[in-house]
Amino acid sequence: MKRIPLSVTLLLTAALLLQPLSAALDPQEEAILAAPEPPAVPTGFTDEKQLMLAAAGGLLTLLDLDAEIPVPDSVEMIPDVEYGRVGDRPLLLDVYLPKNLDKPAPGLMFIHGGGWKNGGKKDYKYYCVRFAARGYVVVSISYRLIGEAVFPACVQDAKCAVRWMRANADKYKIDPDRIAAIGGSAGGHLSMMLGYSAGVPELEGNGGHAEFSSAVNAVVDLYGPVDITLPEHRGNPTVLGFFGGKTYDEIPDQYKLASPWFHLDPKDPPTLILHGTIDTIVPVSQSDILNAKLKELGVPVTYDRPDGYPHTMDIAKEVNLRCQWFMLRFLEEHFKTKAGK
Q1: Which of 134, 147, 227, 310 is the most exposed place for a label (fewest CB within 10 A)?
Q2: What rounded mean pLDDT belongs to the chain?
Q3: Residue 311 CB partners (closer than 8 Å, separation 6+)
Q4: Is residue 211 part of a domain?
Q5: Residue 53 confidence (pLDDT)
Q6: The domain spanning residue 277 has which CATH number?
């Protein structure tokens, strides 16, 4: 979990110049996603610089996620819905609601990344509009960043959002027994915390809807940190910031409480892990140990490990399609139905 290298920053900036985004589902892409095998990606790279050169040469298509992403006609977007409140501070999410739902559908919660200090709920709009168009009820949440409140605030907010989904299940036609948490990087960490730390009182918070469960029924983790107690991560500036500058030696119990690793048990929900092998921010070894431990515990797990791809690998359209393929298969398998059916 190192500082974001300049090459990744430049890669994300380069995305602004490429791939305009459409409101409608692309029939060609949907055909790829319906295929029995996952779509292949271009041969991987040895480092991020090589990947950037490939993108510049047209071998990869970078998504322009900062551009306005239209909402399909089949989806109603409801922005800035209050899902909880901490003192006078409202906690907000966006709802992406499929139109003309005739019965409850699985609910998906997308949780943005950004090292727990940056990002916002619109960061995953690209995914949100697509999964809502396929029949899922989708929410994308904001949460308190560490500039406002350090751990466990963000975990408590995410748990409050799950409780809100259950409290409003009838209103939005959410099946309360089929809720998945999906996130990348810091959002992947929060998704795992939702999946694995159910029932831990100090992580629940007081945001609202206490009468409902904050547990989720499935976890999708894109390149999230699993065990931040390991010696190689303890001095990382991002990790230190997560704890308000407190070191592991000062508050080891909080580091353990914040690590999904220490909450794992055989009752945890099915998990999909997506992580590239040349990630210099969250090492792929974090997902390797998670995959092995979940298998040991008997928890259903699917792991896709694209060789030669970095952190935020799904900024590349080809990798993004592969991630969506795995997400769709995973959700259909563990929710026992296709969205909207």
Answers
A1: 147
A2: 92
A3: 4, 8, 185, 223, 276, 279, 280, 281, 282
A4: yes
A5: 86
A6: 3.40.50.1820
Query: How far is 204 from 295, CA to CA, in rounded Å?
Result: 27
Whole-angstrom distance, CA of residue 123 vs CA of residue 120: 6
Split into its structural domains, the chain has a count of 1
Are the beta carbons of 144 and 116 closer than 8 angstroms?
Answer: no
| Number of residues that this document lists for the chain | 341
**Can you give the pTM of this predicted structure?**
0.93
For residues 290 and 284, the answer to whether their CB atoms sit within 8 Å is no
Residue 340 has pLDDT above 50, yes or no: no
Q: Do the domain assignments include residue 311?
A: yes
Provide the pLDDT for residue 66: 79
The answer to whether residue 245 sits within a structural domain is: yes
* Residue in 35, 58, 71 with CA at minimum distance from that of residue 317: 58
1 part of a folded domain: no
Domain that holds residue 51: 6-334
Residue 73, phi then psi, degrees to nearest 5: -60, -25
Q: For residues 313 and 235, what is the distance between their CA atoms, to the nearest angstrom? A: 25
Any idea which residue has 């699985």 for tokens? 106
Strand residues in the chain grouped as ranges (E): 75-86, 89-98, 105-111, 137-141, 174-184, 218-222, 271-274, 301-304
